[in-house]
Amino acid sequence: MNYLQSNNLELLIGSKFTLVNRDYSLTQEFEKLTEDWKVIYTMLMENGLALKRGSIKVCIHSIEVVIRPQRISDEKQNYNEETGLYTYSIYSGMPINFKEHELDAFLHDNRKVIEILAKISVQTEAERRIMGMK
Predict the structure, then answer these.
(1) Are 72 and 46 in contact (CB under 8 A)?
(2) CA distance 29 to 78
């Protein structure tokens, strides 16, 4: 908490479980400290990131989003070589055996893959000073 208070921070990024203070007696103090900050909670991030005001510049040059049907090859499948069947859990962990063409049709019709390609550049405060930029 002392680190956060003394470093002119403005942005916190990370899992809520990482960022929220583990000492519950400091919860209100943490919330008051960060009420004027930008706090971005993410999933599946074991560490948090705290940034000072103006410490980085992020430019998004382009974003491409593709939504397509899922294919068998998109993820590891449970294939039984003896039976020639795939075991796939369709809903809530309920496994069903499929022939290859059946699983391919099911995935095509019922599962979608979202692919996101973003071209970004990140520049630190130190790099901007070296280049004479603001």
Answers:
(1) no
(2) 49
